Amino acid sequence: MNITNQKIIAITGASSGIGKAMAVCFSRQGHRVYGLSRSSVESDFTSMSVDITNAEAVKNAIASIVEKESKIDVLINNAGMGMVGAVEDTKAEEIQKLFNLNLVGAVQVMSAVLPFMREQRSGKIINISSIGSEMGLPFRGFYSASKAALDKVTEAVRYEVRPWNVQICALHLGDVKTDIAQNRVRSEVSAPYREVFNKVYALMNSHVDSGDSPEAVARYVERLLSKPEWRSHYYFGKFGQKIGVPLKWLLPQKIYEKLMRKYNHID
C-alpha cells in the first residue's frame, strides 16, 4: 500500500466477530488499525482494552491514538449486544444495559473522535446498525429500538458535522454468522409467551447460522470506505431481509404485518 493512502482506523467491538474481521482485513491491507474492546486480543492490529460505556476511558483511548498517529481517519462503531424476550417481561435494568452500550456507548465514542476530525476537517464514521432497526421485530423489540435510536442520532449528527467535511452513515446489517446468540441479553420469558417465543428463537438462531460471514461484511465496508460521498443509510444482508425495508413503506400495514408474522412463524 502507498503510505499516502494509509488510514488510521478505530473499530469498537474488535475482539471477535464482525469487528475483528474488519480489523484484521484493514490491517492486512496496510492501514493502522486500533481495535477497542473490553478484552484485548492478539492479532494483526493494535488491540486496546476499553469499555465504551466508560466515557473517560473512551476519551483517553482516542486521545492516545491521535497522540501517536497525529490524526484519526475512520471510526467504525461496531460494539453492541443483542437482546431477546417479550416486551412485557423485560426488566428496566436490562433495557438500560442494552441502551447504555448500543446507543450511549456509540455516542461517547463519536463524541471523543469528532473534535479531532473537526480540527483536521476530515473523517468518516460508520455506525453499525441492523436491518431490524427499521421494524419492530417480535421478541427483539428493545434491540430494534436501540438500533433505531442510533439511526436517528446518525441522521442528526450528519447535518451537524457537515461543515467540517466529516461523513457519517448507518450500516444496517442482516444476519451475520457470529457468536451473537451466546452474548445476547435474554429476558426470562413468562408462560403466556413461551411457546411462540421458543419457535421464534429457534428460527432466529437458524438465520444467524446461515447468515453472511463477518469477512463478507468487512469487504462491503472496504468498498463503502472508498466512496467519495455517503448516503445516510446502507443495507447489507440476504435479499429476503433487505426487501423488508422498502416493503414496510410500500405495503399497507395490515399486509406487511401479515408477511412479518409469516416470516417469523407467528400465527
TrEMBL record:
Belongs to the short-chain dehydrogenases/reductases (SDR) family. This is Short-chain dehydrogenase. One of its GO terms (molecular function) is oxidoreductase activity. It comes from Riemerella columbipharyngis. Keywords: Oxidoreductase. The keyword Oxidoreductase applies.
